[in-house]
Amino acid sequence: MQPYSLAAQPWPSAAGRFGRFGGRYVPETLIPALDELASAYLGLRADPAFLADFTQLLREYVGRPSLLYRAQRLSARYPGLDIYLKREDLNHTGAHKINNAVGQALLAKRMGKRRIVAETGAGQHGVAAATVAALFGLDCVVYMGSEDIRRQALNVRRMELLGAEVREVHSGTATLKDATNEAIRDWVTRVRDTFYIIGSVVGPHPYPMLVRDFQSVIGQEVRWQLREQRGDRQPDVLLACVGGGSNAIGLFAPYAYLPERPRMIGVEAGGEGIQSGHHAASISGGKVGVLHGAMMYLLYDSEGQILPAHSISAGLDYPGVGPEHSFFAEQGLAEYVAVEDRGAIAGMELLARSEGILPALETAHALGYLPELQRRIGGGPEQIVVLNLSGRGDKDVAELTRLRQMAAGEVRA
Amino acid sequence: MSGVDRVRAAFTAAARQGRAALLGYLTGGYPSPEQFGSCAEQLLRQVDLLEVGLPYSDPLGDGPVIQASSQQALERGATLELLLGEVAALRAQFSVPIALMTYYNPIWSRGEEQFVQLCLAAGVDGLVLPDLPADEASSLIQVAGARGLALTFLAAPTSTSARIELAARASSGFLYLVSVTGVTGMRSREALSEVPGMIERVRRCSSVPLAVGFGISDPEAAAQLSQLADGIVVGSAIVEAARRGEDLGNFAAALRAATTRYPSV
């Protein structure tokens, strides 16, 4: 198997910008650490030994390449669509998050850092960070909002079993946004011995770049696998859910700057509907602003105060979206749509029953877009759709049960 | 008198009195919308510069005390307009410079030009920018510079000489030296042991007035750092005193007394 590539892409610029998005809006204390990280990464991204380590860990530990599965029973529901599922849910720890965690842990090791911190929403990134910390023998602290701790109790216990310390965050909305604030505060305080493993393509430069590069193994494999399975056909549509946007960028990245790229669609969490104000759709329902070190599409009010996001899925419950997605949206390189909570639940149930695969609620937003996609493009010649099945749904069973009981009036909110 | 002039003059006047300048911070709209004005007045009678924090939803450079005060002020309806109204009323009574500490998104969301104009109209003399490094601020530097609004950027223990020079060049009022790696809040004096060396390093590449902040919580720490810096910033300790309902005038007076420089030997 050939090694994965971490080759440079046209963006970001040397200043860490994707067009006008990105940058480094952080306390000065962190700037030297970001410089150190960027220079370490730029030195290693083309280093054959580093690429060999990364590739070997992904193969032997994560279990890559993940399958590219042609979902014929699902496709039968949507005439005109030939749907392939990129099975990131089959990775070790159950989601795409591990790809990035492995890459950043390797970087941390090369940089001589002994302690890692991470933020987590649904707990998938926290579990991935705790996992690589155990594997590399590093101390690990994960910040998680108290609301998410309640929703994702299983993952909290997993992190603890892996030896990580989970610190509960009560401030603000007590979700991913506030966990990220707290992780950054920890990093500012222990910047000399700590490596911050950020979980998505957000944050100050160079994070959106290096998380993208590590996650791009998803799209790189899709290109190889589709060539094997379908000869010269390349995908017509790439479809993925978008919170911060790491699984989507991982699928899009190897295609995004090609002259003939597929249609790329990112599905944001529409919550209870964009009009309701209770959603997490930063591109569909937000405007350009600055949070967690980067300029990006963001939910905030007329005072510049960040608005609480809402989504049934803790992993998409974030008021911003990565700077490169913001750039794609503004330039029209990719399109971004929103699927509401109920559409995600429908998508989850449909995949479970038609294919015997229980996806994460985050992923289910991409599945929830299939009916609309079929209406839009299903009439013509058959379209190859690659949907990134970013994570598995075990973690959501308890919360879904609670929501169902609530709807039936058996328990109160 | 422009904001830049007023800020610089405050440092000069304190130095002439054989003191380091005392910079006191209070979160806008705290401890309550009703009490903020009188608390700020008590401070203005003692400090050489009042730093007012614009409450923000995601203050990632701040520790628990200022976070909690910001969250509480927002819950009780703090807005830029209300805060600038308070500043205008204070400005009518006091000539002490007033700076606004604000994260960048509130500036960006209004537009830099409009934000600066609103500040100047209310009598704000300067901005302190905790999440805007100088290299991301070129347009704000132009907008503020053209109108004499003083900007303050931060230098940190981790900053290289090149970064310190960059922040110093961009700071038209004073340069803010963060005393510890970390967020705002009260720390033990042992944590300040690195500061003298850092001040020496900054002096080698900067000539703007230098204020040290983060972790100065009592007169003893204030006295120690007043021997080295042009000014000292006390934030969380004042906010905490406001929370306890202490007389901020007395609290700040004790700090002010501690800013006296010992005669050099």
The name of the CATH topology of chain B is TIM Barrel
Strand order of the largest sheet of chain B: 5-4-3-2-1-9-8-7-6
Give the low-confidence spans of chain B.
Answer: none
User: What does the radius of gyration of chain A come to?
Assistant: 20 Å
Q: How many helices of chain A does DSSP assign?
A: 17
What is the terminal-to-terminal distance of chain A?
50 Å
Number of strands of chain B: 9
The tally of beta strands of chain A, per DSSP, is 14
Largest sheet of chain B at a glance?
9 strands, parallel
The separation of the N and C termini of chain B measures 37 Å
Order of helices and strands of chain B: HEHEHHEHHEHEEHEHEHEHH
SS-based class of chain A: alpha/beta
| Major β-sheet strand ordering of chain A | 3-4-14-9-10-13
**How many separate structural domains of chain A?**
2
The radius of gyration over CA of chain B amounts to: 17 Å
Please tell me the overall pLDDT of chain B.
95
Number of domains of chain B: 1
Fold blueprint:
The complex is a heterodimer of chains A (413) and B (265).
Chain A: E1 17-18, E2 21-25, H1 31-44, H2 48-62, E3 68-70, H3 72-76, E4 81-87, H4 97-110, E5 115-120, H5 124-136, E6 139-145, H6 146-151, H7 153-161, E7 165-169, H8 176-189, E8 194-196, H9 207-215, H10 217-230, E9 237-242, H11 246-256, E10 263-271, H12 282-285, E11 287-291, E12 293-298, H13 323-331, E13 335-340, H14 341-355, H15 361-367, H16 370-377, E14 383-389, H17 397-407
Helix pairs in contact in A: 2-4, 4-5, 4-9, 5-7, 9-11, 10-11, 14-15
Chain B: H1 3-16, E1 21-27, H2 36-44, E2 49-53, H3 64-75, H4 80-93, E3 98-101, H5 104-110, H6 112-122, E4 126-128, H7 138-147, E5 150-152, E6 154-155, H8 161-170, E7 175-178, H9 195-205, E8 210-213, H10 219-226, E9 231-234, H11 236-243, H12 248-257
Parallel strand pairs in B: 1-2, 1-9, 2-3, 3-4, 4-5, 6-7, 7-8, 8-9
